[in-house]
Amino acid sequence: MEITKELKHQIREAMMKYRNNFGGTDSAFAKTLNISGSVYSRIKKGETDKVLSAGEWLNIGRKFQVDINKNSWKFARTEVYEQMYESFIFCQKSKSSMILVDDCGIGKTECAKAIISQMKNAFYVDASQTHTKVRFIRHLALALGCGTKGKYHEVLENVKYALNILENPFVCIDEAGDLEYSAYLELKGIMNDTVDSCAWFMIGADGLRAKITKGINNHKVGFAEIFSRFSDDFVSLVPRGPEDRKKFYTKLIGDVAYVNLEDKTTVNEVIRSCMVKTDAYYKIRKGQEDGKIRSLRYLKTLVNISRS
């Protein structure tokens, strides 16, 4: 597969942008990309020809979300973004930790990635790709640039060391409900060894709340301690009351629809289409009070249909 010069240039620009937000050395940053320090040095100087294989370029492009296919979907700074931004900055500055548990499809993941890309020494971990403790720790080690080779306990100790020497590190664990029990226990150990050094932020849906609550109620080792380290609370952005909830979703869907729809006169129509509540797959009942409002993923489908 051939990688165009334009794409290499885009990926290099993304690398340099993220390097500015990484507080470690050039050598450590190179490790986060799975390349050698000498290769990174050449790219830093502007070289892009014959320094990496096509696969390596693509891996780095994927890591930094370089828009290879020129996706026309536009990012909107919604209320979800603003509130998550405030929470991320607060946690990093105060070295505290929080758990965000909220509805699926409100843009939590997209907002988290956008915010972290602007923060210094902030790292994103997708727990849906790192279920086990070994994969979780090695993924974190890769993000921190402390290397993934060697025995597991050595990698783990390097992760703790890196988090303690970096300036105000912040780690966001998305889809945190997907982590296995052993990974939660390992996370507790890392947090114990990085107290007053690192801020943590968990993101999940109802499954995360249920897993932690069940673990605490069943007196399962580690869950009460983990919850305590995350401020003994679940933070939510979507209001619980029916009317406030409706207003929240109306604004959220409207904000995203407005920046993505070419014909702005159809925004209200699209909002109405998304505000239909569903209580089960393939079953729709208008006006249902305890149902789930269609998400931004459904909105994206509608927008794509309007463009076709």
Automatic annotation (TrEMBL):
This is ORC1/DEAH AAA+ ATPase domain-containing protein. InterPro entries: AAA_22 (IPR049945), P-loop_NTPase (IPR027417). Residues 94-210 form the ORC1/DEAH AAA+ ATPase domain. SUPFAM superfamilies: P-loop containing nucleoside triphosphate hydrolases.
